[in-house]
Design brief:
Blueprint: E1 5-16, E2 19-30, E3 34-38, H1 45-52, E4 60-65, E5 68-69, H2 75-81, E6 83-85, H3 98-106, H4 114-119, H5 122-142, H6 157-169, E7 175-179, H7 187-202, E8 206-210, H8 214-220, E9 223-228, E10 231-236, H9 238-243, H10 245-255
Parallel strand pairs: 3-8, 3-9, 6-7, 7-8
Antiparallel strand pairs: 1-2, 1-4, 4-5, 9-10
Length: about 260
């Protein structure tokens, strides 16, 4: 295997009873890439994310992260290995501040347990201070540093998306999975999001995103994979995928303006 391959799915099939959500899917994401996974609603895209992150164990096939097989691993171990994700439906702690939401992500790397926290031991206080500083830096990185004290539920929708990305980054992932990050954003917010995703890649991370906005996908992606009815029907650079007859028939021709 290419030592620059961050993620590899081999012949992955996922069945739920009689429903086949993925069928023999192969996928490869190289280190430092921005890769995109597209396809019509119900094509199996979110199932791919669920298999990668351990929410679902594939019925058949294998998933490798940095050369290590991870299908069947516990979700928290996959996260600790360096994979983080956001969700199509934003999942924040609604009544916590923006800063506190991101600090939850930094806790993933804390060594102090509940006893140390309860006793207020010095190393716990040091970790908490470092976590607060890291969270503040991430809020600045995603562009909402001035809103650290605001309650998450009171943030504008686009800022909530950025906050969820900041919280995912707080776990220090090597691979970031973004599930429809541009959903509900206006054109200006989408342009700003593109810049943020590029900054994430430039910071040394690999990105795999699911997205319906074809303009964003084609502008930002190094490689695009296309699913239809749980099967991969095309893969390659954006220009090639855009011109692929199967893709046009299955997706782009019907929903080229989807967002």
């Amino acid at each position: 295997m290419n030592d620059r391959t961050t993620l590899r799915l081999e012949n992955v099939t996922m069945r739920f009873g009689g429903v086949v959500a993925m069928c023999g899917v192969d996928l490869r994401v190289e280190e430092g890439q921005i890769a995109a996974l597209i396809g019509p609603n119900g094509a199996g895209k979110t199932t791919v994310f669920n298999v990668i992150t351990g929410v679902c164990r594939p019925t058949e096939g294998s998933v490798y992260f940095e050369g290590r097989r991870i299908d069947g691993m516990k979700r928290f171990r996959i996260a600790k290995a360096g994979i983080a994700r956001t969700f199509q439906n934003i999942r924040l702690f609604a009544n916590m501040s923006a800063l506190e939401n991101v600090m939850v992500g930094t806790d993933a790397h804390h060594r102090t347990g509940a006893v140390g926290a309860a006793l207020g031991l010095p190393w716990h206080r040091a970790e908490e201070k470092a976590g607060r500083q890291k969270a503040a830096e991430l809020l600045e990185f995603v562009g909402i540093a001035g809103k650290s004290a605001e309650t998450a539920k009171n943030l504008p929708y686009g800022d909530q998306r950025r906050l969820e990305i900041a919280r995912a980054l707080a776990t220090e992932p090597k691979l970031l999975l973004l599930d429809e990050p541009a959903a509900g954003m206006n054109p200006a917010e989408k342009r700003s999001l593109q810049e943020l995703i590029r900054r994430i890649r430039d910071s040394g991370r690999t990105v795999l995103l699911i997205e319906h906005d074809m303009g964003l996908v084609m502008d930002i992606s190094d490689r695009v994979s296309v699913l239809d009815f749980g099967q991969k029907i095309a893969e390659g650079p954006p220009r090639e995928v855009r011109a692929n007859a199967k893709v046009i028939e299955a997706y782009l021709g019907a929903t080229a303006d989807a967002s």
